[in-house]
């Protein structure tokens, strides 16, 4: 039986730890729960917001509508061959716990995505990525319910229109589907990707010369823990800004001016700049505004340092955008969803 709550405090449901309220709140644990929900008057008459782990959202105000907490669980093997395996996970599964499950089973492909906050359902929405791997590299399909008709639809890789931290669910289908499960195609033979970031250096520090997926995962976890604040200790949403893409001409001009520019060449001839480096070089590491701050170890992260409001975090992000644009002529873009 569904329980729809009124005037719910969302502090425990967003990783910034912001005390904001929603008019109505419901937690769903199955597709049947959702089909029951869409028949209710509250659902029919309310603005709706779907929450997973609450790790990629910034509330700047109370939400005068219905928050749907997607807690659909379950992990199943759909198909298995001698080379690979299709693993289907419920959208409400905790992402890192799912990655650990796959590593324990020796299913390869997700190890570089260890310790990313959030739930499985958000992974294709954001096309989450880290250390040279993105969801689109291991994605097979997903199932989602039409939020108007209540019908289940399957999406393949092409239909998801993946881009850098983008998918069709952040654009033309935003707010139109509730993702119920995601299926990943993982390898049984490790194809390690350790050349991005500091993974190889960390493996060397750990004294590991013959790494497997567990060792790569441990290295990624160690790197992330050394740089990124734990949301349980200091509210944050991980990377707040996307790494900007610039033309080859813009890159060349910036490289002449800033010899230590951190950038990565792309297949399309453009360059991806490190947003964290741009922010740090703008003198903003540790900069504070009304309880919000740019993290002292990783400038890509904004933190709720001292009982900041969502508005304070947003204002700080606007200041960061302005200062980076003034110094480099580069327009950063927020990765976090603003409500």
Global Rg: 20 Å
- In the CATH hierarchy, the third-tier topology of the largest domain is known as Uridine Diphospho-n-acetylenolpyruvylglucosamine Reductase, domain 3
Strand line-up of the largest beta sheet: 6-7-12-10-11
Look at the structure and give the CATH class of the largest domain. Alpha Beta
Number of helices: 10
Quickly give the structural class. Answer: alpha+beta
User: Which residues sit in consecutive blocks of at least 5 with pLDDT less than 50?
Assistant: none
Principal-axis shape:
globular
Number of DSSP strands? 20
Mean pLDDT: 91
Q: What is the terminal-to-terminal distance?
A: 29 Å
Total domains: 3
- Any guess at the CATH architecture of the largest domain? 2-Layer Sandwich
**Element-by-element helix/strand order:** EEHHEEEEEHHEEEEHEHHEEHEEHEEEHE
Quaternary? single chain
Helix share, percent: 25-40%
Provide key terms for this protein.
339 residues, Uridine Diphospho-n-acetylenolpyruvylglucosamine Reductase, domain 1, Uridine Diphospho-n-acetylenolpyruvylglucosamine Reductase, domain 3, 10 helices, Uridine Diphospho-n-acetylenolpyruvylglucosamine Reductase, domain 2, alpha+beta, five-stranded antiparallel beta sheet, four-stranded mixed beta sheet
Provide a compact summary of the structure.
By secondary structure, the protein is an alpha+beta fold. The chain has helices at residues 31-37, 41-45, 95-104, 122-126, 157-160, 199-205, 213-227, 248-257, 275-281, 310-328, and strands at residues 5-9, 21-28, 48-51, 57-58, 63-70, 75-80, 84-90, 129-130, 133-134, 139-146, 152-156, 177-187, 235-239, 245-246, 263-265, 271-273, 288-289, 292-294, 301-304, 337-338.
